Amino acid sequence: MFLAIILLVIFFTNVLIGTLGGEPFLGDVGELLLLLVASIIFTITILKHERVERIERNKSNVNGA
């Protein structure tokens, strides 16, 4: 999750630099790839957390029943 946050901060920093009139350090393709990788990492992390939560919930239902 921290990697996705770091990548998003880099992305938004690049966009902010370009907005303020500076020369962004990433081009259009670089921005696209950075945002794509951040989105994929974020999605994978969320799915892992949901899987762990589901497993824990199933364990508590089995033990509680």
Helices and strands in order:
Elements: H1 2-19, H2 28-64
Helix pairs in contact: 1-2
Describe the structure.
The protein has two helices and no strands. The protein is mainly alpha-helical. The protein has one domain. α1 (2-19) packs antiparallel against α2. It is rod-shaped. The model has no long low-confidence stretch (mean pLDDT 90).
- The structural domain count equals 1
Parts with pLDDT < 50 across at least 5 consecutive residues: none
Provide the helix percentage.
Answer: over 70%
Helix-strand pattern, N to C? HH
Name the overall outline: rod-shaped
Total strands: 0
Radius of gyration: 18 Å
- What structural class should be given to the helix and strand makeup? mainly alpha
Q: Please give the count of helices.
A: 2
**pLDDT averaged over residues:** 90
State which percent range the strand residues make up.
Answer: under 5%
Beginning-to-end CA distance, first to last residue:
34 Å
Précis, in short:
The chain has 2 helices and no strands. The protein has 65 residues and is mainly alpha-helical.
Which tags fit this structure?
about 60 residues; 2 helices; about 0% strand; rod-shaped
